[in-house]
Amino acid sequence: MPHTGKPENQPRPTPTVEDYLMTMYVMERDYGEIIAARLAEMLNVAPATVAMTFRRMERDQWLTGKGRHGVHLTETGRAAASSVIRRHMLTEWLLVKVLKVPIHKTHDEAHNIEHAISPELEERMRESLGDPQVCPHGNPFPGAEEVTRGWVPLTEVPVGEKVVVRRIHEFAENSPELLTFLVEQGILPGSQTEVIETLPFNQTLTIRLGEKQVTLGYPAARFLFVERAVSA
Amino acid sequence: MPHTGKPENQPRPTPTVEDYLMTMYVMERDYGEIIAARLAEMLNVAPATVAMTFRRMERDQWLTGKGRHGVHLTETGRAAASSVIRRHMLTEWLLVKVLKVPIHKTHDEAHNIEHAISPELEERMRESLGDPQVCPHGNPFPGAEEVTRGWVPLTEVPVGEKVVVRRIHEFAENSPELLTFLVEQGILPGSQTEVIETLPFNQTLTIRLGEKQVTLGYPAARFLFVERAVSA
DNA sequence: TCCAAAAATTAGCCTGCGCTAACCTTAAAT
DNA sequence: ATTTAAGGTTAGCGCAGGCTAATTTTTGGA
Ligand SMILES: [Mn+2]
Ligand SMILES: [Mn+2]
Ligand SMILES: [Mn+2]
Ligand SMILES: [Mn+2]
After folding, report:
1. Which residues of B touch A124 (CB under 8 A)?
2. Which GO terms describe its molecular function (chains A, B) (predicted)?
């Protein structure tokens, strides 16, 4: 099991740059491109701020290129992104397992703490927490993406099929309201459910959890990944 | 048991100011005055930087007064200092108990993490860790100073008396070398020892730990507080 | 093909928090 | 009493990382 055998001798980026890097990593992985305007929304800064930060990041070799489709992380940038994502996820597990923090509250807390974890501490955490492959929301550690093979967005599940929720996407974690809603409805990794109706013209679908029914908009449903064909 | 029933509605200071506050709190408590030059040494910044930071801190009502004996924390300042000290100490315990980090490494790690702990998390930590009254080095939580009553500096123990090490002072924690040395020699809270010789003209004293003897300079020895009269 | 909307950039501003160099002030020590 | 050392302050600088306002570039749709 390769942990990307990190040399990691480059100096660590500032917390701000670490936050840019981790968001850009996921953007590039799941959307194929990095759009500064989206980044600005997700990081809650003005577009102009992103432009300026990109300049410093290019100077410091975390990224290359400019403009619409031109921005990409360098190898060093990707390594730094992987590092902070690992620290984020390990912190989330520590909060969940040791301090019993509910999973709709771990993300924000972890976003502050992640920048303060030393490499030695990261290693101690990984050992204490049993070398997890996904975060408490089911998102894969960098390098462990294979474990999510076979998990599909809830929007692609045919009506009537029973599935198990496995993953709430990183970008859904950014919305505490959505996350709280999902947790309150009992929609979290491990939950069994079944799609009972889809209304494409309405961009909604309805699922059953036990006795309860919940209607979700497509954008939210696309953030939920489920495992199909649970039983043989 | 009063936790200083914190209203704590003031916005939290920046990490830099939090570090100033916690050091100033201990200075005022144990030395009676705040000397900017000492602060500069302990925080590893230039004296001019302290002067400028003091200005902002006065503007923001964390402190009042200027000059040699004039600087004091406000009530708000003391409350903010207490808050970050609590977070620091709880973080140290988490590192020690959950992640098995040795106590000569907890301080530096905690100094980064302490600024990233939310009030809710602080509360979860206190519960999980059993509401401790002292940090792993034996320093008291703000408000719990009474537990250190009866602990005296090692320099005040007469030759021949058996004592138990209870506390390594906050300001010794700032020196990783000293802390590592002490831990390697087995000098840590709980250790039994005996003063076997004092050489005041040499500013050293020698203690026995099991079979081993260790000679300490007075400045280091003054940072060690011990419990006398252990047995009746 | 052209145009409007979306995205990106530049200019100019601000604060926090570092630094050095120079200069005061205060407190000891001779 | 005077001098020296310790402590403190001011001035002037730099960088990170925010902002708004104005402008330019891209791009997808009519
Ligand atoms: Mn973060
Ligand atoms: Mn997560
Ligand atoms: Mn700190
Ligand atoms: Mn401590």
Report:
1. 99-101
2. DNA binding; DNA-binding transcription factor activity; protein dimerization activity; transition metal ion binding
Nearest to B125 among A99, A118, A125 (CB): A99
Report residue A87 CA to chain centroid gap: 13
| Residue type at position B208 | R
Cβ(A146)–Cβ(A134) under 8 Å? no
Q: Do A116 and B118 touch (CB under 8 A)?
A: no
The alpha-carbon gap from A119 to the nearest alpha carbon of chain B, in Å, equals: 11
What does the domain layout of chain A look like in residue ranges? Answer: 1-132, 152-228
For the stretch A30-43, pLDDT in tens is 999 999 999 999 99
Give A112 Cα–ligand 2 centroid separation in angstroms: 13
CATH number of B152-228: 2.30.30.90
Comparing C-alpha atoms, which of A227, A231, A225 is closest to residue A163? A227
Structurally, what CATH architecture does the domain formed by A1-132 represent?
Orthogonal Bundle (1.10)
What's the predicted TM-score (pTM) here? 0.93
Give the residue-averaged pLDDT of A51-61.
97
Q: Bridge partners of B214? A: B207
Angle between helices A119-128 and A75-97 (to 10 degrees): 50
Protein CA at B111 to nucleotide C1' at C20, angstroms: 28
Chain-centroid distance, C-alpha B98 = 21
